[in-house]
Amino acid sequence: MVKRNLAVTLVLAVAFLASTVATAKPAVAAEALTLDEYFAAALKRSEVVATQSELIRQAEERYKQADAALYPTVNGVASYTRQDPVPAGETSTSTSPNRQSLAKLTATQPLFRGFREFAALRQTKALLSAQNQDYLNARAQLFKDVTQNFYTVLSIEQDLKNLDEEINQNLDREKELNSRVRIGRSRIGEVLSVQSTISTLRAQVEQLQGQLGTVREAFAFLSGLVATTPLRDTEALPANLEPLNDYLVRLEQRPDVIASRQRLSAAQENTKVARGAHLPSLDLNANRYLERTGNLKDSSWDVGVALTVPIYAGGLLQSRVSEAVSQSTQAELSASQVSREAEQEIRTVYQNVVFDRSQLEALEKATDSARKNYEAQRRDYRLGLVTNLDVLQALTAFQQNQLTLDRARYTLKLDYLKLQAAAVRRPAPPPETAP
Asked: Which of 124, 203, 264, 420 could form an S-S bond across to 331 if both were Cys, CB 3.0 to 4.6 Å?
């Protein structure tokens, strides 16, 4: 019986272990992040973009407030007054009772305010539009920051791979020279020269590791993800670059340009608001009395029209007009500056892309030639036709060309994406504004 129980226990234990092994999942490495995925994570993380969203909400509420000025206002008013009784023999207290109570509903409808309210409505609408463009501009700036960090990380990591490859090649060179020293075909000084090169390369690796740590921390700050999250480059090199004018025509679609012009429009409307204060105001007033004392206690309502004509305010109104005109001029200058700077940015980045493409083509040819030269120098060294120094120089030239070539590829992609962002082609617009 005991043996049977023991056997059952062993069978159950084995079954439990088998099910545990079957259901256990191996640890999954962090999935490599593309540029668009990095940007999406940064959008959720960015306080700047979130702040712009809140500013849009505030601008929407200011527009509602300006719109409310066109509609009537209705208020409830109630008061109770007790006064010193009028002495006997004086004026009758029927017109001014000792206790006075009042309860009424009062409504005021603006009829004419010098068109100030309509100008104010257009002003707040323009400011709301400008705030929406500021939000898009903040997204574009974040995209540029993310792209810069993305390719800086990839470039440094590629530099480290190239340096590791160069170190390994020098280590192979060291082994070959040690074997030649043992048979007397090379000098110990040649080995020491290679060892010195290896030490220098390892020092460069340490320096780059420090730089990588810094940009990786910037990645964690922007994305909110673990600093060691791997990155995956899916962006293609530009095959054909469109003419410059194809990018310049998109200048009018840039959010910073649109926002500056909307603020200019708002400043011009503000001038109309200030000038409208010189004109008369006309209001319709109506009261509905719920309780009233005195001679008019039986009158339950009244309606009236009030006309207000500004005559003199110590120069206050004209000063406000002058201030508004100055602000409009300032907004016009600002819009002109933003437009010129945007055009300069497109032209500059475009020229950078053109130069990057030319440089990349030249570096590809130079790197291929340097590789062939290194291979030829190695063959000639084994035949005793060249010195070890010639081989080391050829190897260094090849590796430096390879290093520069890889950097140039990332630089071209970075500048091309900057050009796309400057021409409002990247990033994709948010869903609520996408066409």
From this structure: 264
- For residue 132, the enclosing domain spans 30-71+113-280+333-422
Per-residue pLDDT, averaged over 415-429, amounts to: 94
Residues 6+ apart with CB under 8 A from 253: 424
- 74: enclosing H helix or E strand: strand 73-82
Task: Using only the alpha carbons of the chain, give its radius of gyration.
Answer: 40
Concatenated DSSP letters of 274-309: HHHTTS-EEEEEEEEEEE--STTTT--EEEEEEEE-
Q: What are the tens digits of pLDDT across the range 135-146? A: 999 999 999 999
Structurally, how many domains does the chain consist of? 1
- Return the exposure string of 197-228: e unless at least 16 CB atoms fall within 10 Å of the residue's CB, then b: bbeebeeeeeeeeeebeebbebbeebbebeee
Position 119 in a domain: yes
The answer to the question of residue 24 being in a domain is no
Output the CA–CA distances (angstroms, integers) from residue 16 to 19, 43, 419, in the order listed. Answer: 5, 46, 60
- 187 is written with which tokens? 């000098």
Tens digits of residue pLDDT in 94-148: 566 778 888 999 999 998 888 888 999 999 999 999 999 999 999 999 999 999 9
80 forms beta bridges with 101
Task: Give the C-alpha separation, 234 to 38, whole Å.
Answer: 12
Which has the higher per-residue pLDDT, 115 or 349? 349
Residue 320 within a domain: no
> Domain holding 193: CATH number?
1.20.1600.10
pLDDT at 172 over 80: yes
